[in-house]
Amino acid sequence: MMGVFLLVKIGWRNLWRSPGGTLLTALALGLGLTFVLISLGLLDGSHEQMVRNRVRFGTGHVVIQAEGYQRTGSPELLLPAGIVPKTEAYLRADAKQLVSHGVSPRLLASGLLTSAANSDGVRIMGVIPKEERAVSLIPERMVEGSYLTDDQLSGVVIGAALARKLAVKVGGKVVLMIQGVQPSGTDTTDAGKGEMQSALLRVSGIFRTGVQAVDAHVVQMPLSEAQALLGAPDRITQVALLLEWEGDSVAVAQGLRKQLTDVPVEILSWREAMPSLAQIFLLEEGFNLVMNGVVLAMVGLGILNTILMRVLQRRYEFGLCLALGLRPGQLAVMVIGESLALTAISLALGLVIGLSVEHYLATWGLDLRWFFQSSLPASLVFDPILYSRLSLPRIVSSVGIVFLTAITISLYPALKAARTELAGALKLA
Questions:
Q1: What are phi and psi of 370, to 5 degrees?
Q2: Any idea where the domains of the chain sit in the sequence?
Q3: Tens digits of per-residue pLDDT, 209-241?
Q4: What is the end-to-end Cα distance of the chain in Å, rounded?
Q5: How does pLDDT run across 281-314, given as a tens digit for each residue?
Q6: Are 338 and 12 in contact (CB under 8 A)?
Q7: How many C-alpha atoms does 292 have within 13 Å on its Cβ side?
Q8: At 120, is the pLDDT very low, low, confident or very high (cuts 50, 70, 90)?
Q9: 290-300 burial code (b ≥16 CB/10 A, e <16)
């Protein structure tokens, strides 16, 4: 064991026979680690921001809806309003350790919104204003007028793109036409079911989210008004839950499935409710891994070239070592020791530079508006300032990958040194 330590010590000293080349090589590998840390931090940060915004424009972290609604989207697949107290009871009792920001019941339907100037098809969301404020970003994106209030029995808020198309302003009147529904399990002979209903509403506010699909087609109105128009009193389409941590969504969904066994419902986490977003994340993750692999391969080849050139230039030195009694395996250990020392320096440089940059990006963020002449498309990135979120497992795995890459690269030069022939090496003198 002492012999191994001695060989490593000799390898460490050999590194500093050419300090400029050593530092340059270490910096190259360190910058590779820095790039990996920065790219992973920005990737995780962008995912966190996208999830946080998309769930608040969509179904929340967890959504409860009638069985089959995810597949068909049928407006007649409705839930009883009593599902909300059961959900809140579960969050208070069985999931107390999980932080819930809000539970919002919604009634969803499609209709036609008409003004004096134009008309357009819309996606109607009947909501309870107080509950929706805790779950959705729409109440925070009002640009004109005000959001719905709890004592408001009628009225509607619409997107800026829709308001522009209909040529209406805050306080303007619009007519909403909608077809009544026949909730599953009810008597089909009830009057008004399936017939066209209309209501005269006043625009109380206009919002702008930056997402074209929302700004041009979504309208929100009080839940009681929507239930009256659809002919579905005490019925809702879904219950959206917003949690503190996105990672808790699977556990909450599983717990609610056990709790709500007496009602035919489907309870989905955001990944199940928005599979396209989850697929985008998988694609980005794969692309990032490929890019990091390319960077590490390029850096590794550069280091291989450096170490191999050093080995070839020291054939006479290795010949002398063999003449003094060192075995080929000990020569290989000495070269690997040099690589270990060089890797340690590289990892230290990479961690110092990478974590420093990551700390800056986590604190101040990367302002993507620097790279664009105009504001960034909000449909792609909701916040133009991208913050890094680098977890400890990411750091450990990145350091481990770079370390294994460097050690693997050193095996070939070590083998080359071990195969040095004594006679041929001493002839170089």
A1: -60, -30
A2: 2-53+278-426, 60-272
A3: 878 888 999 999 999 999 999 988 889 999 999
A4: 33
A5: 888 888 888 888 887 787 778 778 777 887 777 7
A6: yes
A7: 22
A8: very high
A9: eebeebbeebb
Q: What is the residue type of 400?
A: G
- Average pLDDT rounded to a whole number, residues 365-382: 59
Does the pTM of the predicted model rise above 0.70?
yes
Secondary structure (DSSP) of 176-187: EEEE----TTS-
Instruction: Name the helix (H) or strand (E) containing 144.
Output: strand 142-145
Report long-range pairs for 253-258 (Cβ below 8 Å, ≥24 apart).
Answer: 253/62, 255/90, 255/94, 255/95, 256/62, 256/64, 256/87, 256/90
Across 228-345, the runs of DSSP E, i.e. the strands, are 235-236, 238-243, 265-269
**Pairwise CA distance, residues 9 & 394, whole Å:** 31
| Beta strand pairing call for 100-114 and 238-243 | antiparallel
State which amino acid sits at residue 243: L
Give how far the C-alpha of residue 362 lies from the chain's centroid of Cα atoms, to the nearest Å: 15
Alpha carbon 413 to chain centroid distance? 41
Q: Fill in the amino acid letter for 281.
A: F
pLDDT > 70 fraction of the chain, expressed in percent and rounded? 87
**Across 38-83, where does the E strand assignment appear?**
62-66, 79-80
pLDDT digits (tens, 9 = 90+) for 182-213: 665 555 444 445 688 889 999 999 999 878 88
